[in-house]
Specification:
Blueprint: E1 3-8, H1 13-24, E2 28-33, E3 43-47, H2 53-58, E4 69-74, H3 90-114, E5 120-125, H4 138-157, E6 162-168, H5 175-182, H6 191-199, H7 206-218, E7 227-229
Parallel strand pairs: 1-2, 1-4, 2-3, 4-5, 5-6, 6-7
The chain binds NADP nicotinamide-adenine-dinucleotide phosphate.
Length: 234
Amino acid sequence: MQKVALITGTGSGIGKALAKLLLSEKYLVFGYSRTNQIKHANFTFTKIDLSDLEEVQRIKFPKLKATTEVLLVNNAATIGSILPIDKKSEKEIIGEYNLNIISPTLLSRKFINAYADNIKLLINIGSGAANSPISSWSTYCATKSALDMLIQVIAEEKHKNLQVFSIHPGVVDTNMQKEIRKSDSEFFPLHQKFMDYYANQELFSVKSVVFRILQIIAKKNDFDEIILNLRDFK
Ligand SMILES: NC(=O)c1ccc[n+]([C@@H]2O[C@H](COP(=O)([O-])OP(=O)(O)OC[C@H]3O[C@@H](n4cnc5c(N)ncnc54)[C@H](OP(=O)(O)O)[C@@H]3O)[C@@H](O)[C@H]2O)c1
C-alpha cells in the first residue's frame, strides 16, 4: 500500500534526514520549508516560510485515495533569538510563535480535515524544553510546551483513524545546536553546558534520531504514551 509523508522543515537537520529515510522506505514525501537540497523522483518540495501564516493557510495538501496511509510531521521550528524577553524584538517573538506553534496547529487541522477517512499519523517534534524553563529561551520553551498540550488535546478528541505522538529527540547535532553555541553567553546562562555537550560528543547524530523515529512509525500501535522521549529508545 502506498504511504505518504508530509514533513515540515525538510531544508536541514532532522526533517531533511527523515525525508530521505522515508524516501528510501518507498514513501511519497512532500516537504515544506524555505530551502531544499533533496532531489528524488518521489519527493515534492513546496517552498514556504512557515512563519508567514497567510502562506500557511494557502497550503493545499495533496489529494490522496482514502486507502492511502498518511503521515504529517510538524518538525520545522526555530530556537529563536536567544535573549531575555525584554531584549527580544516584537517581530522576533511573533515570528517564533507563528512558526513553532500557530503553523503546526493550522497544519494539524488541515491534515485532519483533508484526510478524514485515511489512516493517519500525526507526529510533532517536541523538546525537553517543554518541561524546563530555560533562561533566554522564552518563546522556544513556551511553544514546545504548547505543542505538547496541543497533541494531547487532539488525542482526547479521538479523530477518526488518527494516532498522534510528540517525539522529544534529545540534544541533536543540527544547525539548531550550532545556533545555540553561537549565542551570546552574556545573555545565555547555559551557554557553557551546550558547548560541553558538543566538546564531549554528547549530541545524538541526526541519523540515529531519524532511525528511531522510523521505528516508532513502524511500531506505532505498541505505544500507550503520546509523548515519547528518544533517550528511552535504544
Ligand atoms: N537539535 C536539537 O538538539 C533539538 C532538540 C529538541 C528538539 N528539536 C526539534 O527538532 C526539530 C528540527 O530541528 P533541527 O534540530 O533539525 O534544526 P534545524 O536543522 O535548524 O532544522 C530546522 C528546520 O526548520 C525549517 N525552518 C526553519 N524556519 C523555517 C521557516 N520560517 N519556514 C519553513 N521552514 C523553516 C528549516 O528549513 P529551512 O531553513 O529550509 O526553512 C529546517 O529544515 C525542531 O522542531 C526542533 O525544535 C531539536
